[in-house]
């Protein structure tokens, strides 16, 4: 077993497991946020490409059962154009991930998470009915950022949450969007060689931890006030962004 995890010191493995557990609870509870929590933190202690590939595999496989109920609640008229846009532009994001310096990528991830979080907290509301071109464009931005960092949630979350839709519908849209959009990301990551042996070693720990945390988070959503999940997710995302900020490395590393 030691040989299996030889690339990951025990403390690093425990740190990643704890981060993934929190991320999974938020994902199960809110329908989004796992990548926004896991990626900024994980990419500060391991190569961003490896972190992104591991998270894509974990979230796509383990979170699939959440789609069963969400398929009946989501708004296909806005979800499908967003998925197509994401699949189209994720290739560009994956290329950037393969070519940009790690430190620059960390700053990009921090900027993405912080900027969209501020937009969500501002209370901005999108009052119009989303057209197919608008949904495609938002999905395209999400795909671009997802290819770079597996943090595709901010634009699509800001778009759907900045509306008067019921939280259950928003959550269903998000739960359906990410696995479908992930098909394009899988293809892009395979072409760029991101699925390494270290990634699959990490899955041995990550799959059971993420599966348990998703189940706990989903159970919590059923019992909680629907409006509460926004505050919880935003607080954890803000904390993850702060910890991952490269300028604060002397404090946290």
Task: Explain what you see.
- This protein is globular.
- The two termini are 27 Å apart.
- The model has no long low-confidence stretch (mean pLDDT 80).
- It has one domain (10-252).
- It has helices at 10-30, 34-42, 48-62, 67-73, 76-99, 102-121, 132-149, 153-161, 167-191, 197-223, 228-244, 249-252.
- It contains twelve helices and no strands.
- The protein is mainly alpha-helical and 253 residues long.
- Keywords: Cell membrane, Membrane, Transmembrane, Transmembrane helix, Transport.
Describe the SSE topology.
Elements: H1 10-30, H2 34-42, H3 48-62, H4 67-73, H5 76-99, H6 102-121, H7 132-149, H8 153-161, H9 167-191, H10 197-223, H11 228-244, H12 249-252
> What's the number of helices?
12
- Could you state the order of secondary-structure elements as H and E? HHHHHHHHHHHH
Shape: globular
Largest sheet: none
* Percent helix: over 70%
Average of pLDDT: 80
In the predicted model, the low-confidence regions spanning at least 5 consecutive residues are none
What Rg do the Cα atoms give? Answer: 17 Å
Protein name: Probable membrane transporter protein
Organism: Roseibium denhamense
Membrane topology: Multi-pass membrane protein
InterPro entries: TM_pro_TauE-like, TSUP
């Amino acid at each position: 077993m030691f040989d299996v995890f030889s690339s990951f010191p025990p403390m690093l493995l425990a740190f990643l497991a704890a981060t993934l557990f929190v991320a999974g609870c938020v994902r199960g509870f809110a329908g989004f946020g796992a990548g926004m929590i896991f990626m900024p933190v994980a990419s500060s202690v391991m190569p961003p490409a490896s972190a992104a590939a591991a998270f894509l595999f974990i979230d796509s496989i383990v979170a699939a059962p959440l789609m069963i109920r969400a398929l009946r609640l989501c708004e296909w008229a806005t979800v499908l154009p967003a998925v197509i846009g994401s699949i189209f532009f994720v290739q560009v994001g994956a290329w950037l991930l393969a070519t940009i310096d790690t430190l620059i990528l960390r700053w990009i991830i921090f900027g993405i998470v912080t900027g969209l979080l501020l937009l969500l907290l501002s209370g901005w509301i999108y009052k119009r009915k989303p057209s197919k071109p608008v949904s495609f464009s938002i999905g395209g931005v999400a795909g671009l950022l997802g290819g770079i960092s597996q943090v595709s949630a901010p634009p699509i979350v800001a778009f759907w949450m900045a509306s008067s839709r019921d939280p259950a519908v928003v959550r269903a849209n998000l739960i359906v969007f990410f696995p479908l959009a992930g098909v394009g990301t899988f293809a892009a990551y395979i072409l760029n060689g991101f699925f390494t042996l270290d990634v699959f070693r990490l899955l041995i720990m990550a799959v059971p931890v993420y599966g348990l945390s998703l189940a706990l988070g989903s159970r919590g959503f059923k019992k909680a006030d629907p409006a509460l999940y926004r505050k919880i997710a935003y607080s954890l995302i803000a904390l993850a962004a702060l910890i991952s900020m490269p300028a604060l490395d002397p404090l946290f590393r």
